[in-house]
Structures are given as structure tokens and as C-alpha cells.
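Researcher: Final request for today, and then I'll write up notes for the group meeting. The sequence and the SMILES for NPW follow.
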Amino acid sequence: MRAVEMAAIDSGTVTGLALMERAGAGVVASFHTNWPALRSGSARILCGPGNNGGDGFVIARLLHANGWQVQVVTFGHPDQLPQDARHNFNRLAMPVADGATTPPTQFDGDLSVDAMFGTGLTRPISDPAMASWLHCHDRFCAAGGAAIAVDIPSGLDADSGRVLQGSACARSGLTVTFHRAKPGHYLADGPEFCGTLHIVGIGL
Ligand SMILES: NC(=O)C1=CN([C@@H]2O[C@H](COP(=O)(O)OP(=O)(O)OC[C@H]3O[C@@H](n4cnc5c(N)ncnc54)[C@H](OP(=O)(O)O)[C@@H]3O)[C@@H](O)[C@H]2O)[C@@H](O)CC1
Ligand SMILES: [K+]
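Model: Predicted protein-NPW complex:
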């Protein structure tokens, strides 16, 4: 998937930013399909240090523009964000909480989005702050809340479908992935953590 994305970008037919915008818009469209009654409310978006977090910033902007009350929680310093994610971070017109220094609270809003890690997860999630915020997402999902994972539930290996050894991981009721499903969506722990799987095209 990473190779496909890079080939499309390198060929000049599409930019990473355009792919990210389509990914974020695809998640919002899938959300409305899966929970049609939820037209607006309060959303919490957990945004990690890479482009998965970048998708989260796009989602935050789109929901906010549609009248949602949005709480963005970031993990990692904005200066360290990859270019496309940084661009979308800068476009946010709402307060952002730093997940490293803000204690997580039980979420009793309407929509929780896991945009912490996607295909770039390289090792178990061991950071205590990340783990406790993901735990809030998981509890919200378990309580029947609208919980979405962007691309892949954070902590789940996209190839094997296993939760990385010792990693935090959160269940979602809906996982929205891009272009093609990954083996991990269907294998091992995948189905339990992904919930319903939507595959959205991003023009690749
Ligand atoms: N490419 C495209 O055009 C498109 C991409 N798209 C989106 O991008 C996603 C892939 O983005 P990505 O490659 O930035 O990886 P992502 O999962 O966001 O994180 C990587 C960062 O996390 C860090 N890190 C890793 N493990 C960690 C840990 N346990 N604990 C802490 N940190 C950890 C890692 O650090 P490092 O391992 O380098 O030290 C790195 O900084 C993809 O899933 C999709 O959602 C869509 O928009 C479609 C178009
Ligand atoms: K994710």
C-alpha cells in the first residue's frame, strides 16, 4: 500500500495532500453511511505523529465546518509532523489538546476517531499517555459509541492482524481503509478490532 501511494505521488498524477484530503473526506462519508442519524454533535479525534494523524486533522476540519464541536488530541510535536500532516495541522481553526500533557477523560460525546497510527506503526504502542487515550476510545466503543479507526485500528499489525506484542490497541465499530483492504483487517484479531470495514477509493 505504501509503495502504491508513493508510486502514484512520484508519477506526479496525484499529490500526497490530495490523497490525504480524499482519505479524510472518505472517512466522514463512511461515518454518515454507518451512523446516518448522527448529523452533528461532539467529536474527539486522536491524531498521531504521522500521516494517519494527518487524516485526523482533515476529518476534524471537515466535521467542524459541518457544525460539529471537535476536540483534537495530538501526540507528538507538530514540528515533527510529515509535510502533508503538518499542512493540515496548520489549517485547523480550533483548540488542540496535547495528549502527552492532558489527562484523558471518559468521553461522553457522539463520535471518537482513532487517527493515531496507520500503516507506519513500527513497534508496540508503549507510551502511557497514548495507551490511556486509546483506552478511552476502546471504552467508548464498548459502551456502544460511534468509534471509528482511520485505516487500521492503532496497535494492530496491518499485515498479520495481530495486536503487536504488548501494545495498546483499541476496538472501533467502523474501520475506514483506503484503496484496498489489508490482510490485517481480516486475519487474527483484525475483525474484532476493526468492526465494520469500509474501503474507500482515494483515486489510486
Ligand atoms: N502516503 C500517503 O500519501 C497517504 C497516507 N495516508 C495515511 O497515512 C498513513 C501512513 O502514514 P505514516 O507513514 O506517516 O505512518 P503513521 O502510521 O501515521 O505513523 C508513523 C509515525 O508514527 C511513529 N510510530 C510508529 N510506531 C510508533 C509507536 N509504537 N509509538 C510511537 N510512535 C510510533 C513513527 O515514528 P518512527 O517509527 O519513524 O520512529 C512515525 O513518526 C496511512 O495509514 C493513512 O492513514 C492516507 O492519507 C492516504 C494517503
Ligand atoms: K488508526
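Model: Helices lie at 2-10, 16-34, 51-65, 83-90, 128-142, 183-186, 190-194. The longest helix spans residues 16-34.
Researcher: Thanks, that's everything.
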